[in-house]
Write a structure and sequence with these properties.
Layout (H helix, E strand, L loop, with lengths): L3 E2 L2 E2 L3 H14 L2 H12 L2 E2 H8 L3 H13 L4 E5 L2 E5 L3 H32 L1
Antiparallel strand pairs: 1-2, 3-5, 4-5
């Protein structure tokens, strides 16, 4: 049960456990890469494995876990299974998190790059 703490509704233990499980799945760099790729657009497992540079069986297993957690969905197109993220909030979270970390990494790397350029 959620409680009101200091004017802000606190989260239930169940919601927190579900969120931790979802974030736990995204703690894998391979699964995060898959989610990032699917946030850019839907894809079948073969093309997705090519995009993320993973082995087909491994990507398939990661997709199964993400699907069980309802982070991705799939639909059949002929003989192919097409995977996608249909929750815009999940796409937003993944793009925001990866984008922010990428921007930070770029800011940290910029002075080193400038130093290398001046000493070359």
């Amino acid at each position: 049960m959620a409680a009101d703490v200091g004017g802000v509704e606190d989260l239930s233990a169940e919601v927190l456990a579900d969120a931790a499980a979802a974030f736990g799945l995204l703690a894998s760099s391979a699964r995060l890469h898959i989610m990032w790729s699917l946030a850019q657009g839907e894809c079948d497992v073969t093309h997705l494995a090519d995009r993320v540079g993973g082995a087909l069986p491994a990507v398939s297993q990661h997709l199964s876990k993400l699907k069980l957690a309802s982070l991705v969905r799939s639909r059949r197109e002929g003989r192919r299974q097409i995977y996608y993220v249909d929750d815009p909030d999940i796409v937003t979270v993944v793009r925001l998190m990866v984008g922010q970390l990428s921007a930070r990494a770029e800011q940290v790397a910029a002075p080193v790059r400038r130093l290398r350029e001046t000493s070359a």
